[in-house]
């Protein structure tokens, strides 16, 4: 009796790799991106911060304001990091667990920041406009941006972009089960979809597909595939295409050399360079080149980044005015003290809000019936 060779054996589903050790360099890069955004808000733009300084930040920082103006690109770096981290944390995780992880990570500090800024801005000694009680309540949902409601936190628009990314990733990757092929198709499909939507001028699809931010999230996802397999040609292709498209959107939105009224004139070269450095930094982490940066304090830095990012702008105005106009501390000293104050506040939020509430909320969401 002859035994026929088995020619078509079903392949077992791709199993997730064991959860990897924490990439502490990524935590450090998070804080660098947050400090870039803070530099932009404190010294790289006009608007409400002018009232805090008592004059234009251009006068306060005659040379550095031109460099601070590039700090807004820290948001794009955040999005690349987010693509990497979400793909890493969502791989091999069921949908309920993924949702519980994301909600418990974002909401406690966010709720605390909304309440804190609302209360501080309502104080008679603070000369900044507080939103109405109704608008403040809507802000607790994180949906104020699409609803057209006044925002409590100036930076919350980036959270609306994050939420849409989470939803797309959950629907097309986490729900059916993450594997290399599905992640690659997700990246390619999203890229093609937002390009078509942009070309067809379809505003509804633009809201869903986020052409101006999608390349950065997709690039981060591609870099996580590189982290899993450094020789993955498809992953490198995703990263390169995402960078090429992402820098285009960054230049289109931020290049202002021809605007005579611009606070500071960013150059095309400067914008492309900062975007490239963001991709290169995450790529260096993905390739393991920064594994030597394994200091414990980087984990602390990563933990402080999110609450710092939430509160630094609006409460920073209050701190700048107190240090510079009330205590007459020179602008550079007031700048550094404001950053230090916001980091201290972030530590307090992490210690007394995130640490006790995040695990409880995650456990409650993971155990609840759906």
Would you kindly provide a brief summary of this structure?
With 370 residues, the chain is mainly alpha-helical. The protein has helices at residues 24-43, 48-53, 57-60, 64-68, 74-90, 95-122, 133-139, 144-147, 156-174, 180-200, 203-209, 214-228, 233-254, 268-286, 296-326, 331-367.
Note the main attributes of this structure.
71% helix, 16 helices, single chain
Main sheet properties? none
DSSP helix fraction: over 70%
The global form is globular
| Number of beta strands | 0
Structural class: mainly alpha
CA-CA gap between termini: 54 Å
Mean pLDDT: 91
Low-pLDDT residue intervals, each spanning 5 or more residues = 1-19
- Over the alpha carbons, how many angstroms does the gyration radius reach? 22 Å
The DSSP helix count reads 16
Verbal overview:
The protein has 370 residues and is an all-alpha fold. The protein is globular.
């Amino acid at each position: 009796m002859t035994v026929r060779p088995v020619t078509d054996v079903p392949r077992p589903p791709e199993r997730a790799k064991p959860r990897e050790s924490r990439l502490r360099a990524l935590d450090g890069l998070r804080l660098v991106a947050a400090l870039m955004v803070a530099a932009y808000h404190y010294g790289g733009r006009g608007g409400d911060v002018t009232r805090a300084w008592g004059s234009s930040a251009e006068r306060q920082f005659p040379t550095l304001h031109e460099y601070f103006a590039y700090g807004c690109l820290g948001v794009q770096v955040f999005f690349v990091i987010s693509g990497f981290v979400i793909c890493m944390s969502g791989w091999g995780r069921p949908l309920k667990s993924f949702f519980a992880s994301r909600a418990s990570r974002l909401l406690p500090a966010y709720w605390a920041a909304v309440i804190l800024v609302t209360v501080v801005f309502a104080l008679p000694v603070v000369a900044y406009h507080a939103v109405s009680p109704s608008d403040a309540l809507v802000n607790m949902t994180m949906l104020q941006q699409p609803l057209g409601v006044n925002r409590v936190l100036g930076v919350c628009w980036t959270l609306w972009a994050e939420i849409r990314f989470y939803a797309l990733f959950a629907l097309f990757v986490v729900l059916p089960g993450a594997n290399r092929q599905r992640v690659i198709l997700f990246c390619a499909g999203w890229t093609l979809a937002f390009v078509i939507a942009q070309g067809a001028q379809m505003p509804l699809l633009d809201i869903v597909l986020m052409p101006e931010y999608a390349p950065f999230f997709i690039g981060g996802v591609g870099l996580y595939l590189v982290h899993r397999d450094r020789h993955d040609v498809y992953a490198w292709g995703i990263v390169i295409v995402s960078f090429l498209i992402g820098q285009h959107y960054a230049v289109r939105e931020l290049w202002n050399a021809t605007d005579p009224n611009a606070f500071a004139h960013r150059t095309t070269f400067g914008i492309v360079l900062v975007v490239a450095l963001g991709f290169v930094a995450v790529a260096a982490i993905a390739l393991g080149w920064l594994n030597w940066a394994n200091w414990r304090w980087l984990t602390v830095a990563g933990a402080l980044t999110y609450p710092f990012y939430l509160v630094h702008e609006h409460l920073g105005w209050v701190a700048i005015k107190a240090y510079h106009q009330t205590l007459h501390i020179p602008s550079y000293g007031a700048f550094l003290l404001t950053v230090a104050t916001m980091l201290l506040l972030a530590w307090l939020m992490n210690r007394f809000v995130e640490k006790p509430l995040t695990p409880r909320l995650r456990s409650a969401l993971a155990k609840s019936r759906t």
